[in-house]
């Protein structure tokens, strides 16, 4: 079986990091390379990870550069044929990677994501229909919002050679930006079974503090249509229609906010 690398970026999050690491160790798919990238945390995280330091790779960035930089450093250091991301407050269920590798082999795909449980503060919560996920030719279906969770996705490393990695200038919506590039070129496998627990236990999720997140998606989509040279005419037309829709949403929001 080809090797999988789990990339776990972390910044100052000591409450949940061990849970994330252990959820990778508990996978029933065989050995997985684990790379923890410390994005310049204010305290040394190595004592927290001491029991695992002989079986994981630990990379420390001397300065906080954002999650995109941390993930990219993990991608560049990875020895696996497949890269799977795991946010430091989330956990994988034990069968996640096995199920993904099986469906990717069956469908001959290079990207796969899964459904997820949501856990907020002290309880599980239901997802709204707004966050419905899809498989296959999903590009037209992910233009509105990011419908792929970083912690649920696994990507053949070679994909990044064609699409590029995370945009390090983006502190939020960096996943929306990347998955647009991927979905424009690849069919994406999807597992309806919930294979991760996406947790919001602390109050340091950056995206929650962004009041005009749609305006950031709008700028990202504009940049994408202007710079991505491999976009089909059909996809370009669909993306331009979404730009118009987002412009109306942002304009309406700005008017209401005055």
Task: Provide structural commentary.
- With 258 residues, the protein is α/β, with parallel strands linked by helices.
- The protein has two domains: 4-205, Alpha-Beta Complex (Spore Coat Polysaccharide Biosynthesis Protein SpsA, Chain A); 211-258.
- It is built from seven helices and nine strands.
- A hairpin with a 2-residue loop joins strand 6 and strand 7 (123-125).
- Helix 5 (174-183) runs parallel beside helix 6 and helix 6 runs antiparallel to helix 7.
- The longest helix has 25 residues, at 233-257.
Would you spell out the secondary-structure blueprint of this structure?
Blueprint (H helix, E strand, L loop, with lengths): L3 E7 L6 H9 L6 E7 L18 E4 L6 H11 L4 E4 L5 E2 L3 H12 L3 E10 L2 E3 L28 E3 L2 H5 L10 H10 L5 E12 L12 H15 L5 H25 L1
Parallel strand pairs: 1-2, 1-4, 2-3, 6-9
Antiparallel strand pairs: 4-8, 5-9, 6-7, 6-8
Helix pairs in contact: 5-6, 6-7
User: What is the helical fraction, as a range of percent?
Assistant: 25-40%
**SSE string, helix = H, strand = E?**
EHEEHEEHEEEHHEHH
CATH superfamily of the largest domain: Spore Coat Polysaccharide Biosynthesis Protein SpsA, Chain A
CATH second-level architecture of the largest domain: Alpha-Beta Complex
Show unreliable segments. Answer: 205-211
Tell me, briefly, the overall form: globular
Mean pLDDT score, rounded?
Answer: 92
CATH topology group of the largest domain: Spore Coat Polysaccharide Biosynthesis Protein SpsA, Chain A
* Total number of helices: 7
Strand content: 15-25%
Radius of gyration: 18 Å
Distance separating the two termini = 57 Å
CATH class of the largest domain: Alpha Beta
Major sheet characteristics: 9 strands, mixed
């Amino acid at each position: 079986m080809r090797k999988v690398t789990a990339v776990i970026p972390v910044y100052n999050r000591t409450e949940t990091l061990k849970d994330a690491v252990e959820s990778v160790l508990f996978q029933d798919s065989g050995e997985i390379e684990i790379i923890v990238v410390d994005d310049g945390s204010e305290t040394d995280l190595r004592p927290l990870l001491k029991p695992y330091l002989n079986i994981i790779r630990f990379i420390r960035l001397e300065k906080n550069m954002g999650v995109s930089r941390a993930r990219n450093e993990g991608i560049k250091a990875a020895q696996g044929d497949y890269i799977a991301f795991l946010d430091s407050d989330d956990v994988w269920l034990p069968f996640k990677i096995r199920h993904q590798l099986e469906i990717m082999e069956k469908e001959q795909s290079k990207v796969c994501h899964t459904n997820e449980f949501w856990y907020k503060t002290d309880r599980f919560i239901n997802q709204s229909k707004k966050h419905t996920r899809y498989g296959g030719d999903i590009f037209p279906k992910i233009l509105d919002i990011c419908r792929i969770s970083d912690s649920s996705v696994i990507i053949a490393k070679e994909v990044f050679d064609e699409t590029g990695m995370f945009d390090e200038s983006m502190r939020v919506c960096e996943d929306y930006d990347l998955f647009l590039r991927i979905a424009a070129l690849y069919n994406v496998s999807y597992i309806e079974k919930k294979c991760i627990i996406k947790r919001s236990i602390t109050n340091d999720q950056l995206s929650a503090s962004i009041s005009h997140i749609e305006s950031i998606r709008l700028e990202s989509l504009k940049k994408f249509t202007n710079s991505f040279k491999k976009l089909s005419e059909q996809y370009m037309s669909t993306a331009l229609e979404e730009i118009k829709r987002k412009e109306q949403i942002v304009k309406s929001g700005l008017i209401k906010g005055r």
